[in-house]
């Protein structure tokens, strides 16, 4: 059966579309679904940083016709893969966005879910992925500009005759309620709090389920996954107090800094040769695989 293709979008940069894509993908995999992520934001790709990977082949190579889909696909764990983008400007110069249809067609035969992380805007590059999706998840922060831009994106999506799966409100400060979702006239899928774990996990290049699984934001993304799949919310890990959560995040950040300091001592060593899209950070990915593979 072909995959369910979901595009994660919003009209404003910085609202957490890529963070939502990655953490939704991880939650889907934890719930037993196979998942492929595609960085379809060809202008400002972010999956490289969020997943802590350093690809040698990217979606830009595929869209420019110099590589096949399989060459750009990084198998992060069993049933969980990603095609990252090239953050350099040179990678953007020769792409043909229409080729994304072939990429999606290839992956939807092999995975249960294909998640498209899209750009912020209404250019052709941003719109193309939306037309390939079975449904759209809107992402917005509570501020008025973000909501207005997301509503503009929604109006355009409706002109494409693509169904809206619902809206995710990110960076919520505790005062968010259903009134924002009412502005979109769609389901409120999740409210992700303004949680420091999101910022720290992004800086560390790790999904929340790896970096801070007990954080409020991680729990919100599990709720998003449950709502999208009409499933039961996966069992929550033991509750921690706000103080314990803070200590967990800080301690993890300290371990990451220690690892970076150790790595800096090895800068003068000859780098190991890496095969195309062989992940060069096995420690992180091994921990990730252990957590997300049932």
Structure commentary:
The chain has one domain (4-292): P-loop containing nucleotide triphosphate hydrolases (Rossmann fold, 3-Layer(aba) Sandwich). Helices cover 45% and strands 15% of the residues. The protein contains 14 helices and eight strands. It has helices at 17-30, 47-51, 59-63, 69-72, 89-92, 100-107, 124-132, 144-159, 178-184, 196-204, 208-211, 216-229, 242-264, 282-292, and strands at residues 4-9, 35-39, 74-77, 80-83, 113-117, 135-140, 164-172, 188-193. A hairpin with a 2-residue loop joins strand 3 (74-77) and strand 4 (80-83). The longest helix has 23 residues, at 242-264.
CATH topology grouping = Rossmann fold
Beta-strand portion reads 15-25%
- What is the helix tally? 14
Label the CATH architecture.
3-Layer(aba) Sandwich
Question: How would you summarize the topology of this molecule?
Answer:
Elements: E1 4-9, H1 17-30, E2 35-39, H2 47-51, H3 59-63, H4 69-72, E3 74-77, E4 80-83, H5 89-92, H6 100-107, E5 113-117, H7 124-132, E6 135-140, H8 144-159, E7 164-172, H9 178-184, E8 188-193, H10 196-204, H11 208-211, H12 216-229, H13 242-264, H14 282-292
Parallel strand pairs: 1-5, 1-6, 2-4, 2-5, 6-7, 7-8
Antiparallel strand pairs: 3-4
Task: Fill in the keyword field for this structure.
294 residues; alpha/beta; Rossmann fold; eight-stranded mixed beta sheet; 8 strands; 15% strand; globular; disordered C terminus
């Amino acid at each position: 059966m072909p995959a369910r293709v979901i595009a994660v979008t919003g009209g404003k940069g910085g609202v957490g579309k890529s963070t939502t894509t990655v953490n939704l993908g991880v939650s889907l995999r934890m719930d037993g679904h196979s998942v492929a992520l595609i960085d379809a934001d060809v202008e400002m790709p972010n999956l490289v940083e969020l997943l802590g990977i350093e690809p040698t082949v990217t979606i830009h190579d595929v869209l420019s016709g110099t590589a096949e889909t399989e060459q750009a696909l990084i198998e992060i764990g069993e049933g969980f893969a990603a095609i990252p983008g090239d953050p350099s400007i040179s990678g953007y110069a020769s792409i043909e966005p229409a080729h994304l249809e072939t990429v999606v067609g290839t992956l939807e035969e092999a995975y249960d879910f294909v998640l498209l992380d899209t750009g912020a805007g209404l250019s052709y590059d941003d719109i193309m992925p939306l037309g390939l999706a079975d449904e759209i998840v809107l992402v917005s922060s509570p501020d008025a500009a973000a909501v207005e831009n997301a509503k503009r994106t929604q109006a355009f999506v409706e002109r494409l005759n693509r169904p809206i799966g619902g809206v995710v409100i990110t960076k919520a400060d505790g005062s968010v309620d259903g009134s924002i979702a009412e502005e979109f006239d769609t389901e409120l899928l999740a409210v992700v709090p303004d949680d420091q774990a999101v910022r720290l996990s992004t800086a560390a290049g790790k999904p929340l389920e790896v970096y801070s699984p007990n954080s409020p934001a991680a729990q919100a993304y599990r709720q998003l996954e449950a709502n999208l799949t009409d499933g039961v919310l996966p069992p929550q890990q033991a509750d921690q107090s706000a103080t314990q959560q803070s200590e967990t995040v800080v301690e993890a950040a300290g371990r990451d800094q220690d690892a970076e300091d150790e790595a800096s001592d090895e800068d003068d060593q000859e780098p190991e040769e890496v095969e195309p899209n062989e992940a060069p950070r096995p420690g992180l990915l091994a921990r990730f695989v252990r957590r997300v593979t049932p």
